[in-house]
Write a structure and sequence with these properties.
This protein is an alpha/beta fold. It is built from 4 helices and 4 strands; from the N terminus they run βαβααββα. A 4-stranded parallel sheet has the order 2-1-3-4, with helices on one face. Helix 1 (19-31) packs across helix 4 (112-132) and helix 2 packs across helix 4 (112-132). The longest helix has 21 residues, at 112-132. The radius of gyration is 14 Å and the shape is globular.
Length: 139
């Protein structure tokens, strides 16, 4: 059950194993319980990309226990903001939702050195989103 006073954000990518996981983790880390955070994919992978897990650990965020989740109509319906990660994923459209597409390099098959700049760009976009939502970052 969502709290109407707390905005809800859904991050979507095909495999839900890299970009959307990093975005969800940064938003959770920086906003705490002031934002309800979800991530999902239309064709979820079996596990989160290990290079993504390592890059996030370097930033002090442990996502090793996260698992890719399947995108559902209910997840979109219950979100205020739906952000796709530049992967061309199609989301169900519902009027009154805010849809954004963040064009980001895909970390799939990349090593941690290639994931770091993607991680850093995602963090900056999350900080910008928090500013738009008028929610101060806690870290």
């Amino acid at each position: 059950m969502s709290n109407p006073a707390v905005p809800s954000v859904l991050f979507v990518c095909v495999h839900n194993a890299g970009r959307s996981q990093m975005a969800a983790a940064f938003l959770t880390h920086l906003a705490g319980d002031r934002v309800q955070v979800r991530s999902a994919g239309s064709a979820p992978a079996d596990a989160v990309n290990p290079a993504v897990v390592e890059a996030m650990a370097e930033a002090g965020i442990d996502i090793s226990a996260e698992t890719p989740k399947v995108l559902t109509v209910e997840a979109v319906q219950s979100s205020d903001v739906v952000i796709t990660m530049g992967c061309g994923d199609a989301c169900p459209y519902f009027p009154g939702k805010r849809y954004l597409d963040w064009a980001l390099t895909d970390p799939a098959g990349q090593g941690v050195a290639a994931v770091r700049p993607i991680r850093d760009e995602i963090e900056q976009r999350i900080r910008g989103l928090l500013a738009e939502l008028d929610i101060p970052a806690s870290a």
